[in-house]
Design brief:
The protein is of the alpha/beta class. Helices cover 54% and strands 12% of the residues.
Length: 223
């Protein structure tokens, strides 16, 4: 859904598959004197189409979309509309997803449970050309990138972006076929990802993979 743009304000585009989250963000942003929401989308395909049309200054993107991948969306935005900055607003653990989001092209990562002022601070920070990360994740990334400390990396962190999306989808209760449909890939592709996940996590079979995916998903939601 595109809206009329107020040229005196900085423009923000919202991508989240939960209508209530979009409504909350839209109300929050439109109450600011310097910001306005110029459009919103619920999935990857709609987001790419509308972002290319309205050309916002910044897009606020959820990692987990019902149709399509937030990480893949970030990569596509950087290719199709490179001038659009991207912030991730996610419920998922930043220690696992923030680095992936940055590699994909995001300029900031905010947890949905953070207070309202942090969301607005992140948007303004990125609009000013800076990166926005919590102190916790900034420290983690500094240790990893500057000092090369990789000893604390968990097996799940070794998964590629696509492998992690498949793992997460299975843990959320989606079947192999449903996962293929969500990620817009073939069932054989999902099966190939599953084989690599089993190898990386040292899992013997599909049942062990499913159990581990569900346990991981439950731990993430409990944080």
């Amino acid at each position: 859904m595109a809206t009329t743009i107020n040229k005196t304000k900085r423009t923000v585009f919202l991508v989240d598959d939960h209508p209530l989250v979009r409504e909350w963000l839209s109300n929050l942003i439109n109450q600011q004197s310097d910001l306005t929401v110029c459009g919103e989308a619920a999935d990857k395909a709609e987001a790419i189409k509308l972002i290319g049309s309205v050309k916002p200054e910044i897009a606020v993107v959820d990692i987990s979309l019902e149709e399509g991948s937030g990480i893949e969306l970030i990569k596509d935005i950087k290719v199709t509309t490179p001038d659009v900055a991207v912030i991730v607003l996610s419920m998922h653990d930043e220690s696992l997803y923030a680095e992936r989001a940055l590699r994909a092209g995001a300029r900031g990562y905010v947890m949905k449970r953070e207070v309202t002022r942090n969301v607005l601070q992140a948007i303004r920070c990125v609009l000013d050309g800076k990166l926005y990360l919590s102190d916790k994740i900034a420290t983690v990334l500094a240790e990893k990138w500057v000092e090369g400390r990789l000893s604390t990396v968990s097996p799940v962190e070794t998964l590629s972006d696509r492998e992690l999306e498949v793992f997460q989808s299975l843990g959320s209760g989606y079947s192999t076929r449903q996962t293929a449909e969500r990620l817009n890939v073939s069932i054989k592709t999902v099966q190939a990802f599953c084989a690599r996940i089993k190898e990386k996590l040292n899992l013997a079979n599909a049942n062990e993979l499913l159990r581990e995916a569900i346990r991981w998903h439950d731990r993430q939601n409990a944080k």
